[in-house]
Amino acid sequence: MEENKDILKTDQPEYVLEIKDLSIRYDTDDAKVYAVNGIDLKLKKQTTLGLVGETGAGKTTTVLSLLKLVPDPPGVITGGEILVNGNDVMQLSKKELSAMRGKEIAMIFQDPMTSLNPVMTVGDQIAESIMIHENVGKEEAFKMAQKMLETVGISGERAVEYPHQFSGGMKQRVDIAIALACHPSILIADEPTTALDVTIQAQVLKLMKDLKDQFQTSMIMITHDLGIVARTCDEVAVMYAGRIVEEGTLEEIFKKTMHPYTEGLFNSLPNMKDRNSKLKPIKGLISDPTVDYQYCAFADRCPYATEKCWQEVPAKRYFSETHMVMCSAYDDPEFHIARGHENG
Amino acid sequence: MAENILEVENLVKYFKSPRGTVHAVDGVSFTIEKGKTLGIVGESGCGKSTTGRSILRLIEPTSGTVRFEGKDILQYSSAQMRKMRKDMQIIFQDPYSSLNPRMTVSQIIMEPIIRNRLIRDKKKREERVLELMETVGLAERLYNAYPHELDGGRRQRVGIARALAVEPKFIVCDEPVSALDVSIQAQILNLLKELQAKLGLTYIFITHNLSVVYYFADDIAVMYLGKLVEKAPAQELFAHPVHPYTQALLSAIPEPDIDSQREMIMLKGEITSPINLPDACRFAKRCNYCCEDCTKKDPELREISPNHFVSCFHPLD
Ligand SMILES: Nc1ncnc2c1ncn2[C@@H]1O[C@H](COP(=O)(O)OP(=O)(O)OP(=O)(O)O)[C@@H](O)[C@H]1O
Ligand SMILES: Nc1ncnc2c1ncn2[C@@H]1O[C@H](COP(=O)(O)OP(=O)(O)OP(=O)(O)O)[C@@H](O)[C@H]1O
Ligand SMILES: [Mg+2]
Ligand SMILES: [Mg+2]
User: Fold this and answer.
1) Domains of chain B, each with CATH number or no CATH
2) How far apart are CA A146 and CA A157, in angstroms?
3) Interface pTM (ipTM) of the complex?
4) pLDDT in tens, A288-318
5) Which of A304, A264, A60 shows the shortest CA–CA distance to B186?
6) Which residues have any ligand 1 atom within 6 Å of their CB?
7) 3-class SS at A51?
8) Angstroms from B79 CA to nearest CA on chain A
9) pTM of the model as a whole
């Protein structure tokens, strides 16, 4: 068994994607923005990793770096390593990167217009993506594109229209259709369904799951919707101020929540049992990305913060092989958060 | 009886497409009482944004009536409308394309103040912008930042600050929180509620997030392919949805609970195009309860119990 594993490692790495100690900064005229501050992330084959966290925590910046798409300037990768299927991304040429994009990695962008061409019909754009992979002519590809549109819930006869004639959610679905048509081995979906109603969302998530089952696709799913995480992810990483503060299996994050920030997220959700209860956001202001936090960035908002939290960046602590938490409160072995302990 | 600030009657908006006419909004009617929130939900592409934009005349409706404080604003000249705009604002769905990329945060927020000549003194105007930035939780250092330097959440706050700048009476909120993390969502929703209580604001709140709309709206309207298919007070709609589409929609809410065992109602495939509409219920092809009469005529919206409206020949119970 052991030997076998080693052989596998050489021609096919255990992880399709590895990020090691990645840091990214934006040097703007006014300030330095510390967007990503030493992130480690590993993605296994046929696994969906949910990336959740604060608005501005650096989720998009992290995934953009996988294809060297962070705008430079002002973006600077100040440290770290990125391996995609064993290839060191930083060493790849533009040509190699664009070959990788679409085939190995497909990305669904948070802003669909960054990837859609405004002067090309949506049908032609999907067809173009199909022709990269299937040996078919233009006409055939266009027909397949129309089918693809139908699978994301848009009538095929609208393939001849341009992006500006589509609603926000329809554009997003075109983006999704293009990404799925590639049959990528890694799919990065940056808030892919924010503009979709829940029935179409369910349909789209099912398409992604089929892709995963059929082509063993691995996925990073960035979302603010914990319901989507619950439904689609195997593992979850929670980001705050450019760091991953908690990481674990779906079960660990939802049922054995440990980081106070993660707890705050769950507490912010509307209470469906009581319409009149006020929403409970995490108190305090969102983190300031121009601060190079050399202590816990969540400390001033954390109900459990102690002296120590202001003195150093919390160390990574593993509570199981998979469950990592960055929180100094756990220096006290008796410490626990309120969630999950309320009812005894 | 409470006063209706907005009355929409038979609102229609068609777009031309290479294949024919897109029936984006096709005869929508509703009223909103002053100080209340109407939530609009429905399938992506069903005409929610077009409804909101037509009411504000950001796009010209094809036909219909929109009365704001009793006045038929579709008859207004563009000069009259310009004055009116101060009272009616919109927070856009897309925090990316709705902010002018060449303007700084402060310029964007200041623009409607200048356009409406609200504050003439430059110093006071700057103070007002800073005050608005603080209201929505934007740090002062972003005063001269450009939209592309901001993450989605901060961009959306800029849009909200801009809408609030002119102290409107009525705001169309087109998915104002869908780009935000749940904690900031809660903050913004609390903020919008506080402003509503304090300033007596009226909202149309368009969203795909059903738990948010349940919490936030007084009444909820469900749209499907350009039509209103059901409308009721929030609690009533969630407790007794009677349109098959509403039921399917509510069943698909992803719950943030990994043990959730709820059955989702799957809709059948075939999509009805908004271009060549048959004279039939628009939901018929996907409806699990479709009967013969549903394919022969389009049902009208009717009141089945006080304040509960549905357009379906065979409402469920
Ligand atoms: N081009 C840029 N120039 C300057 N700052 C930037 C740029 N792009 C992003 N930032 C900043 O970097 C930080 C991280 O942004 P990023 O978009 O990665 O966050 P995110 O986690 O994806 O947020 P959201 O959930 O709102 O999409 C934010 O503070 C943002 O304002
Ligand atoms: N400028 C336009 N030109 C042509 N067609 C348009 C235009 N704007 C919208 N449409 C069409 O009108 C219909 C309704 O679009 P609208 O943007 O109102 O939908 P929506 O309900 O807001 O959807 P979403 O939830 O995806 O934002 C769609 O079929 C869309 O393609
Ligand atoms: Mg992002
Ligand atoms: Mg819309």
Assistant:
1) 4-87+168-184+198-254+262-316 (3.40.50.300), 98-167 (no CATH)
2) 7
3) 0.89
4) 899 999 999 999 999 999 999 999 999 999 9
5) A264
6) A 26, 28, 33, 35, 55-61, 71, 74, 110, 289; B 148-153
7) strand
8) 28
9) 0.92
